[in-house]
């Protein structure tokens, strides 16, 4: 094997891990919503789009650029967009989603399942097109000076091989992992997080404990929205975006969540990571245009071979 | 402490409870027995607020329970240990107990309560970091009872704690109930299929059949009555 | 005939639509009229799979796109006419449906829905990679009819109308046949459908093939109308969403749903786009989205069902029909069973023989070494406390579960390993603890679902169903919809459904649950009569009470094993049985 090939593989691997970390965070948001309340949310990609614009405007107009500068500022804006989108998700659930899920729909013999799907499709349409009206169709981006510079790792193996890591992608990956760890701590260590998990495990028994299920669901929906929004902001530092960007990513998110196993939050992260790796590594052997086709083929393969995903429970809760 | 009057309830088209009235006095151990399908579990769900009655009233310590949302009732001091255990399978034993202690009283008394629960059921202490879904049936039942106790309740409602357990383990669970009772003088409302065991422990019993209370009284009078045998065995 | 009659209203609507189309001269509005029909057809194609089976597909763009590309490529490379290419596209769609269905039907619920997403998206990238970013159909001005390139756009609308009517006719025919019944049964409860003798995988594959074929044809026509095909316009997620949206907005599981959905949503979105699109880009999407959200919150099952349910509710109030209390026609209710019934079974032959049957789940031995025989004409009561393994035993007997060890001989043949629908065909019928009626269908139609396992024709199915309705004493309410029945009537209807398949052995799972004393007696009387008519019956109950007078023999299970097996009097005196039911201490007390 020539060193060029090794270098290419390592470079693709690094690119895959960097992209995968942010995809992972994105998936975790969706996985949280699905895991806690079994809602298939088609508007998740558009929530992410809102996160991108929220970070964009916070950075540009909330004095953050002036206060923190061009390097740190974007990340401050991204983190601030989290709470903003939390509130957004919380209210979307309270006003809309809660009306077609839960006990109200119990009598509808599975039709409620379709109702929430089409409801989120409707929300997605409003957000995409509303975004077009409000934000315009011009490509936006959160450029940082880091976007165009790279760290060189190496050279090693006799000076032949070195990998270049784009700085802003590197930082995005690190922030993603930190956010993931923080969320994991929230879910596993705090009382609220445990209550969310209890509600996901058995909503009726959770009610017997005095846990308000409706409120837990709203919080989970808000958290899921915020997490995906932060991932969106991080993506926005590397790629330009537009109001319809959600469509491109919602599928990637679902692929990641299913790969990781519906209902598992850490699974969702690794699912997203896998998507990033498959996407980047496939460029080594496949033409670039087939990069995304590869994702879906891997997705289908895994769904058939191991439908519960990497981390899922063997049986889907009914 | 708990009073039900003329409660009727059911699911969509199927009426389950028909004009049920019962009383639980503070410190009493009351057992509700009756064959399966008599409506015992529905009765509990109605008290907990999962099922809304179509008629009747429920009072707890003078409060109209029907005006209190289901999730607020545990905070009044009602702990429901549901049928089939229903522990949170993906949470650890300790986390399950913490969920029990979501109430203010449970928070305040957490330290002593957890010690008492562990002393009563040492197996829970041994397995405190194990995921609840991997426990055996008997252990899950103990965890469910411990989870109920962790809320420091005024009223503990137990729905068929012996269900699906091997006889020896069911006996063990009943012994534990006796111990809890001896230690705490807690008010207990028990639903059980195993009539003899249930009535033996209880101060007072109700026999439920096809959604109605057909018989009530103390242990001795109930056992002397042949109607129980009839309700179960049909002859 | 019935299918033809049911098409009267669609034909009328189509005629009105055609008149409107002929008057409209503006080519933009004419295109809109065409597109309404295209999307309605697409919605109907989707509905054949997702509406009737309940398996929501997010991936119908795969079939749509394959159809579109079949036409585009066929015309570009082989110069074929769309009149041939559209049927060819239907073929491609059908085959694609089978190829997709075979692996994907192994998945259920959310997994199925999400897996379906992947197919069109993978195809989208493949077609891009193949270099078909934008295919323009060659212009054939010299032969407009041969190539469906009409100069007058009204022809497109008419062709689309004919296509839509054909699809409506197909849907109606499916709805009224055993095909539709099988799909509805699958939607309601796949396991129960299997137990009623329906080969569920087979029907699901037929459904996805038909659905794919229709969708492929629609996609092909779409390509012909628009003359340009791009991967994202035919494989994109919005295409799949379009099918979902029009059907769910209008209501799934009915031909009217997609028609209503397309007729309302497509013009609204197009007109908004035309009127305001230039000034406020995206406004049509916003209004469209808000409309969807509003309708779903007001009518989660879709417009059609909401309106229909409302009309139905308003109907009886306006003209109150004398609500004749549903009387179960009984010769002599609550007569002691064995007094009338000679113990014929004693001389009969063994119908079902169970030997050393065992199954465990994890460490739990749910059923262990169970052995018993059921004789022809006998009523066997299977009782035992909660969790004793009664329902598990039934699941082993009708093929839902495969035992770890042991034999189940039905009429001398070992049936272990046979699928439920095979066992049902062999003559093992079953009811379920949890009732799953089709609430909007009449009692007669509900029962008919169970008849197809025996019936060769629709005619015969109807006859068997009527006969079964009669035998369970529901003739008086046969035309009521199931949603209006009482618990007792529902139980009898379930009994009728199992009976319609002419079973030799009927497994009844808690048929008396939730019934009051008087009601239970009435159902018991029906069961007794069935036994007199020669049906062999095994019935599960928790309690012995209503069973004691009904059954010839008891099989008592406890912790998965046989505790006692014998005649009712002996069993109720058996100390072990009393202990299992009332507890050890009761026995000790009684002895003392």
Quaternary arrangement of the chains shown? heterotrimer
Give, in spatial order, the strands making up the sheet with the most strands of chain C.
8-9-10-5-11-12
Please write the CATH class name of chain B.
Alpha Beta
By CATH's scheme, which homologous superfamily of chain B applies?
P-loop containing nucleotide triphosphate hydrolases
The total tally of domains of chain C equals: 3
The largest pleated sheet of chain B is described as: 6 strands, mixed
Number of helices of chain B: 11
DSSP helix fraction of chain B: 40-55%
Would you spell out the secondary-structure blueprint of this structure?
The complex is a heterotrimer of chains A (318), B (235) and C (592).
Chain A: H1 3-37, H2 44-61, H3 64-100, H4 111-135, E1 150-156, E2 161-166, H5 167-189, H6 191-201, H7 203-208, H8 213-236, H9 245-260, H10 265-285, H11 291-305
Antiparallel strand pairs in A: 1-2
Chain B: E1 2-11, E2 14-24, E3 29-33, H1 40-48, E4 55-60, E5 63-64, H2 73-76, E6 78-81, H3 93-100, H4 104-108, H5 110-120, H6 122-126, H7 137-150, E7 155-159, H8 167-184, E8 187-192, H9 195-201, E9 204-209, E10 212-217, H10 219-224, H11 226-233
Parallel strand pairs in B: 3-8, 3-9, 6-7, 7-8
Antiparallel strand pairs in B: 1-2, 1-4, 4-5, 9-10
Helix pairs in contact in B: 3-7
Chain C: H1 2-6, H2 8-23, H3 27-53, H4 61-78, H5 82-104, H6 109-129, E1 135-136, H7 154-176, H8 178-188, H9 190-195, H10 200-226, E2 228-229, H11 231-235, H12 237-250, H13 255-276, H14 283-298, H15 303-318, H16 337-340, E3 350-361, E4 364-375, E5 379-383, H17 390-397, E6 405-410, E7 413-414, H18 420-426, E8 428-430, H19 443-448, H20 458-471, H21 487-500, E9 505-509, H22 517-532, E10 536-541, E11 553-558, E12 561-566, H23 568-573, H24 575-582, H25 584-591
Parallel strand pairs in C: 5-10, 5-11, 8-9, 9-10
Antiparallel strand pairs in C: 1-2, 3-4, 3-6, 6-7, 11-12
Helix pairs in contact in C: 2-7, 3-7, 3-10, 3-12, 3-13, 4-5, 4-6, 4-10, 5-10, 7-8, 7-10, 8-10, 12-13, 13-14, 20-21, 24-25
């Amino acid at each position: 094997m020539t060193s060029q090939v090794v270098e290419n593989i390592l470079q693709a691997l690094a690119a895959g891990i960097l992209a995968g970390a942010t995809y992972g965070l994105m998936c975790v948001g969706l996985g949280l919503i699905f895991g806690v309340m079994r809602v298939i949310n088609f508007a998740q990609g558009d929530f992410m789009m809102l996160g991108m614009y929220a970070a964009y405007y916070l950075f540009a107009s909330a004095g953050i650029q002036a206060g923190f500068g061009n390097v740190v500022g974007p990340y401050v804006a991204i983190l601030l967009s989290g709470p903003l989108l939390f509130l957004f998700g919380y209210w979307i659930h309270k006003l809309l989603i809660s009306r077609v899920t839960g006990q109200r729909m119990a009598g509808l013999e599975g039709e409620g399942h379709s109702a929430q799907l089409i409801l989120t499709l409707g929300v997605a349409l409003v957000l995409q097109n509303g975004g077009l009206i409000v934000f315009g169709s011009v490509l936006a981006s959160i450029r940082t000076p880091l976007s165009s510079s790279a760290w060189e790792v190496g050279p090693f193996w006799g000076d032949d091989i070195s990998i270049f890591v784009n700085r802003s992608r590197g930082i995005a990956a690190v922030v993603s992992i930190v956010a993931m760890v923080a969320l994991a701590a929230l879910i596993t260590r705090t009382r609220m997080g445990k209550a969310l998990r209890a509600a996901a495990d058995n909503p009726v028994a959770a009610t017997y404990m005095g846990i308000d299920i409706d409120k837990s669901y709203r919080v989970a929906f808000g958290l899921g929205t915020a997490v995906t929004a932060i991932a969106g902001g991080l993506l926005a530092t590397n790629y330009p975006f537009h109001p319809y960007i959600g469509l491109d990513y919602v599928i990637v998110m679902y692929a990641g969540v299913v790969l990781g196993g519906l209902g598992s939050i850490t699974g969702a992260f690794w699912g997203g990571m896998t998507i990033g790796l498959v996407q980047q590594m496939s460029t080594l052997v496949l033409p670039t245009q087939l990069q995304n086709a590869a994702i879906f083929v891997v997705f289908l393969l895994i769904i058939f071979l191991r439908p519960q995903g990497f981390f899922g429970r063997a049986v889907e809760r009914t | 402490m708990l009073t039900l009057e003329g409660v009727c309830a059911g699911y969509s088209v199927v009426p389950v409870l028909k004009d049920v009235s019962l009383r639980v006095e503070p410190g009493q151990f009351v057992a509700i027995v009756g064959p399966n399908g008599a409506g015992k579990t529905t009765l509990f769900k109605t008290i907990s607020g999962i099922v809304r009655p179509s008629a009747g009233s429920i009072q707890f310590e003078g409060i109209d329970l029907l005006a209190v949302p289901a999730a607020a009732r545990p905070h009044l001091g009602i702990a429901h240990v549901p049928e089939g255990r229903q522990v949170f399978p993906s949470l650890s034993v300790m986390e399950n107990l913490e969920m029990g202690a979501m109430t203010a009283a449970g928070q305040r008394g957490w330290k002593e309560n957890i010690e008492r629960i562990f002393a009563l059921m040492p197996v829970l202490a041994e397995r405190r970091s194990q995921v609840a879904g991997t426990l055996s049936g008997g252990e899950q039942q103990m965890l469910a009872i411990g989870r109920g106790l962790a809320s420091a309740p005024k009223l503990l409602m137990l729905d068929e704690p012996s269900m699906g357990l091997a006889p020896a383990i069911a006996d063990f669970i009943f012994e534990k109930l006796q111990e809890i009772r001896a230690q705490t003088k807690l008010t207990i409302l028990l639903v059980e299929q195993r009539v003899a065991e249930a009535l033996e422990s209880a101060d007072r019993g109700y026999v439920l059949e096809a959604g109605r209370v057909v018989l009530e009284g103390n242990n001795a009078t109930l056992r002397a009555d042949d109607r129980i045998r009839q309700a179960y065995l049909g002859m | 005939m019935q299918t033809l009659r049911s098409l009267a209203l669609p034909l009328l609507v189509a005629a009105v639509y055609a008149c409107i189309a002929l008057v409209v001269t503006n080519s933009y509005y004419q295109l809109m009229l065409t597109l309404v029909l295209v999307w309605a057809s697409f919605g109907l194609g989707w509905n054949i799979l997702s509406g009737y089976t309940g398996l929501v597909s997010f991936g119908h763009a795969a079939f749509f796109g394959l159809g579109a590309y079949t036409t585009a490529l066929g015309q570009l490379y082989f110069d074929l006419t769309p009149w041939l290419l559209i049927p060819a596209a239907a073929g491609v769609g059908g085959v694609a449906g089978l190829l997709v269905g075979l692996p994907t039907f192994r998945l259920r619920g959310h997994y199925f829905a999400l897996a379906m997403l992947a197919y069109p998206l993978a195809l989208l990238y493949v077609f891009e990679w193949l270099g078909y970013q934008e295919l323009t159909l060659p212009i054939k001005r010299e032969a407009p009819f041969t190539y469906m390139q009409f100069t007058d756009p009204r022809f497109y609308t008419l062709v689309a109308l004919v296509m839509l009517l054909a699809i409506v006719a197909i849907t109606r025919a499916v709805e009224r046949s055993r095909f539709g019944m099988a799909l509805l049964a699958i939607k309601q409860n796949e396991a129960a459908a299997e137990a009623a003798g329906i080969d569920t995988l087979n029907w699901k594959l037929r459904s996805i093939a038909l659905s794919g074929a229709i969708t492929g044809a629609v996609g092909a026509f779409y390509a012909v109308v628009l003359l340009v095909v791009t991967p994202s316009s035919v494989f994109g997620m919005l295409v799949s969403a379009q099918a979902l949206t029009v059907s769910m907005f209008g209501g799934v599981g009915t031909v009217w749903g997609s028609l209503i959905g397309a007729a309302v949503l497509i013009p609204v979105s197009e007109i908004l786009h035309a009127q305001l699109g230039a000034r406020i880009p995206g406004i049509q999407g916003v209004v469209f989205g808000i409309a969807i959200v509003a309708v779903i919150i007001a009518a989660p099952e879709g417009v059609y069902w909401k309106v229909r349910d409302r009309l139905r509710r308003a109907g009886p109030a306006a003209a109150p029909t004398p609500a004749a209390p549903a009387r179960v026609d009984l010769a002599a209710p609550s007569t002691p069973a064995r007094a009338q019934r000679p113990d014929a079974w004693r001389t009969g032959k063994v119908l079902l023989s169970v030997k050393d049957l065992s199954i465990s789940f994890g460490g739990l031995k749910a059923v262990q070494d169970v052995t018993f025989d059921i004789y022809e004409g006998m009523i066997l009561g299977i009782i035992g406390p909660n969790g004793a393994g009664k329902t598990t035993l039934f699941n082993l007997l009708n093929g839902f579960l495969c035992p770890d060890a042991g034999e189940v001989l039905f009429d001398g043949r070992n049936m272990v390993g046979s699928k439920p629908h095979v066992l049902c065909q062999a003559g093992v019928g079953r009811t379920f603890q949890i009732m799953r009626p089709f609430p909007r269908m009449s009692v007669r139609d509900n029962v008919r679902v169970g008849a197809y396992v025996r019936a060769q024709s629709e005619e015969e199915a109807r006859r068997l169903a009527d006969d079964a309705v009669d035998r369970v004493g529901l003739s008086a309410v046969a035309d009521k919809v199931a949603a209006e029945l009482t618990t007792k009537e529902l139980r009898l209807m379930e009994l009728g459904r199992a009976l319609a398949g002419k079973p030799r052995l009927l497994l009844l799972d808690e048929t008396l649950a939730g019934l009051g004393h008087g009601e239970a007696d009435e159902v018991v009387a029906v069961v007794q009569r069935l036994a007199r008519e020669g049906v062999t019956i095994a019935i599960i109950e928790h309690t012995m009470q209503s069973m004691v007078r009904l059954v010839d023999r008891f099989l008592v299970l406890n912790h998965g094993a046989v505790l006692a097996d014998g005649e009712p009097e002996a069993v109720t005196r058996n100390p072990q049985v009393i202990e299992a039911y009332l507890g050890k201490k009761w026995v000790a007390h009684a002895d003392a």
